[in-house]
Amino acid sequence: MTQPTTVRGEHLRTARALAASGLPVLPLRAGKVPFGNCRRCTNNACGGRPNMKTPGPCACPAPCHGWAAAITDPAIVNSTAWVRAWCEAAAVAYHPGGADLTVVDLDNADAIAWARASLPATRIVLTTRGEHWLYQGAMPSANAVRPGVDIKSSMQYARWLGPGTGAITALPDAVRALIVKAPIPVRPAAHAVAAPVGAVGGACRHRTPAFLERGIAMAEQQIAEARSAIHATVYRTFLAVLSTHGRCGCLTDGHVARLFNAAQAKGESLRHCTDAWTNALTRLGL
What percent of the chain clears pLDDT 70, i.e. is strictly above it? Predict the structure, then answer.
């Protein structure tokens, strides 16, 4: 159903004001989802927009790249393609990471109670089901870090529901730690075979700190630099790591968490990460 003209105009006015204040904005369709890709950008044919600072080769004027379409440029906000989108939009969203912000999305009363007991006070925005707690500082985004708690910051969007109340405070370590402490359901060490591959005299060469650290760092970089086919890139990277380190017991939960965090920073869900890891283990017979 077409929205009233007053509602459509309010979305555009809100977007203009937020963009002018330095908050990267984008329109949302019904269901709180971004506008789908236009025909020439379907399946990332345009090259995509991996992040806000390096938008990549795509010069599409339409807001069709999800969180990566969020902008502050008033010329783009007021362009024909964007004004048309604002007229069809059901809500206004913004990219928290692009404004150096992190949103702790609390979906229910239990999550709110946990936040009040565990996190420093900061600016609070009421939502339809709970609260958004806003902190100054960006970090990787992650879903379901605790029951009813999501982190929305880099490479993610949040719905604009008003400025909120309270003074905004610096992003605390307690929030950063949420994505590090998220449980990893697959424990590769349990799949290690009795005889380490490449072992000499009972010593595993992969336990050399520099060798293992370089391998994990290269895997993180490969995932971070992927501009398309993210699912396939994550799977291939997990497969490469396991083919080198999966049979000798070198990998710890900390190493796996780093790989999962890199994948989640590119938009992968925990379920997709787990599936990719499990499929790589199966292919290698681990």
Answer: 83
